[in-house]
Design a protein that fits this description.
With 595 residues, this protein is an alpha/beta fold.
Length: 595
């Protein structure tokens, strides 16, 4: 009876999903046909909302994401255009529950400061800046504005930064599950979450260096923005968090007021006739930067690196599918109109084999005399660094988490756990090592030595390519590698990156490599090209929407079993990734940075 009930529910979900697709398609077509930009007013107060996660990746392919929220590139280009637009009087930002990395905060802050340098005001309103949850990175961004307005009931959670790492060894011991992992080398600590109950000495030292670098960057930025000494800021942080009136007394905020008062003040400051205009509407009504001139391919590699295309379905953004990214790079190499490649990487790493596929295509671009600039996002570590190494220039934010040159892998042995449950396993094998990767039994004789040889080969290949790609000697690579994780600022010091900055710095490197003037126009061409709404609809009709995807949409169950487990445990899905790693993984440790 239960099985029949599940079948009926599944069929209803699929039918419901199909209905949703057709309704969504009708909405998409309607929006597309009626999508006419409104004329912009003569005096503009640009308005930006930072209360949702700031996406930094390829355009969404989702059928229902035709009108996506402005992403990081939209914000950078919108503020760049507004800075030189005489119609724009100033910028107002609402930010209370932001979700972004330190690197993203640095990109946005640079854009706001450039906007202010044009002589226009930029003011920020927040109901609460992490008063009950911590908000050091958010406050770092806020300190780049002319004024910070805080709701009287809000607070400022300026409390510093922390790194927390989950360890499951105690749980595995209780379950009598044996972790069987290897790592190259001592700082490649991802497997320690399963093999230890606390950080090893090398991992602790390395992560403290990373944390100190990121915290120092935040302190320096806050001190400069609020014109307070760095020592004083550190003292303030050590005594936080703060109530609104305390933050006002300390000079951390400029006004305690409500949203309506903030808006009224912005109108007065902008002059008679000024109208608020959202960033999305503003971008739709102007000739955007980077849409004409020398053609440069813009290729995003975002997320865990896997083999295949990782296209997802029509409801999801594409992932870091090595074959899809490699095909886009190859297309850019063969296209004579494309003069260079801007490779935007935001990835903690992933499969060694998949990473190597992308590495080869970046190397081929160099061999074809097509310059490549790798621009790192919040994270470009392990495999995320591997794919960037062959680029002609690597650009990172000071707060980018990068490096992690190393490898780990292995398995867990669960035979004793099954025995406790009264379950036994039997099997048939052809070949002495056919059960080498069994999650029930331990390594057969000699297999562990072969596994160690695989890890040695991957590590030697990684470091050899780093030496060649980055023109480093063995001593330099050894000092930067062995699994160490670096901030972008420290990676610049040890030769792993070339330039600190974001989109503007990366485009400057593109112009330099192409011998163009510093202000020469560039036309960024997304590759692979995003699907149009109609193409997305046709793709759905052709069967790219699986029954499982439709059922998931209809039931609002979009996450995998691991995602659900992570949510119940209060973890990120990535925290559980080491539970089933393949033999060789180029991935940074599963740390959680609280900032």
């Amino acid at each position: 009876m239960r099985t029949l009930r599940r079948i009926i529910v599944g069929l209803l979900a699929v039918v419901g999903g199909i209905v949703v697709v057709f309704i969504g398609a009708a909405v998409v077509i309607s929006l597309t046909l009626s999508d006419r930009p409104e004329p912009l007013p003569e005096t503009i107060v640009l308005r930006l909302d930072l209360d949702e996660p700031v996406r930094d990746g390829p355009p969404s392919q989702g059928l229902f994401a035709v009108r996506h929220r402005p992403d990081l590139r939209d914000m950078v280009e919108g503020l760049e255009a507004a800075a030189s637009d005489d119609r724009v009087a100033g910028l107002t930002v609402h930010m209370s529950r932001p979700q972004f990395s330190i690197a993203t905060a640095q990109e946005l802050r640079q854009s706001v400061e450039a906007f202010r340098d044009s002589g226009k005001f930029a003011i920020l309103f927040t109901e609460d800046l992490g008063g009950l949850g911590g908000g050091t990175t958010e406050y770092y961004l806020a300190s780049g504005f002319d004024e910070i307005w805080l709701q009287p009931s809000g607070g400022v959670g300026l409390i510093g930064m922390a790194i927390e790492v989950p360890f499951a060894r105690g749980l595995l011991d209780k379950l009598e599950v044996q972790p069987r992992f290897g790592q190259r080398e001592e700082y490649k600590s991802a497997a320690e979450s399963l093999t230890r109950s606390s950080l090893s000495g090398p991992a602790r030292r390395n992560l403290q260096v990373l944390l100190d670098s990121l915290y120092g960057q935040a302190v320096a930025g806050i001190a400069a923005g609020r014109q307070i000494g760095e020592a004083d800021i550190r003292d303030v942080v050590d005594k936080g968090p703060y109530l609104g009136r305390e933050a006002l007394t300390l000079g951390l905020v400029d006004r305690l007021a409500y949203w309506d008062e903030f808006i009224a003040a912005a109108k007065d400051r902008s002059g008679a006739g000024a109208e608020p205009v959202s960033l999305g509407r503003y971008l739709a009504g102007i000739d955007r930067p980077n849409r004409s001139g020398t053609k440069v391919a813009l290729i995003h590699g975002r997320g865990t690196i896997v083999s295949g295309s990782a296209d997802g379905d029509v409801f999801d953004e594409p992932g870091f599918g090595a074959h899809r990214i490699a095909e886009a790079i190859s297309e850019a190499i063969e296209d004579d109109e494309i003069k260079a490649i801007l490779f935007r990487v935001d990835s903690p790493g992933g499969s060694y084999i998949a990473s190597d596929i992308v590495w080869r295509e970046i190397r081929r671009a160099g061999e074809a005399a097509k310059p490549v600039v790798a621009s790192m996002g919040g994270t470009a570590a392990s495999g995320g660094y591997f794919v960037a190494m062959p680029a002609d220039r690597i650009v990172a934010y000071p707060g980018t988490v990068t490096g992690s040159i190393g490898v780990y892998g292995g398995k867990v042995v669960t035979e004793r756990l099954w025995a406790r449950l009264g379950i036994t396993w039997d099997g048939l094998y052809a070949g002495d090592r056919a059960a080498m990767w069994s999650f029930v039994r331990d390594f057969p004789p000699g297999a562990e030595q072969r596994f160690a040889a695989l890890l040695d080969f991957i590590y030697e290949d990684f470091t050899a390519k780093a030496m060649e790609d980055r023109s480093l000697d063995p001593e330099q690579v050894d000092a930067a590698a062995r699994g160490r994780v670096w901030s972008g600022a420290d990676a610049l010091e040890n030769g792993l990156v070339d330039v600190l900055g974001g989109y503007r710095a990366a485009l400057g490197e593109v112009r330099e490599l192409l011998d163009l003037a510093p202000d020469a126009p560039l036309n960024l061409v997304p590759m692979p090209a995003p699907l149009s709404p109609f193409e997305q609809f046709v793709r759905a009709l052709e069967g790219d929407v699986s029954a499982a995807s439709l059922a998931a949409l209809f039931a609002s169950e979009r996450s995998s079993v691991l995602d659900q487990a992570a949510q119940e445990l209060g973890l990120e899905a990535e925290d559980l990734a080491p539970l089933r790693p393949p033999a060789g993984v180029l991935q940074m440790p599963p740390l959680r940075l609280r900032h």
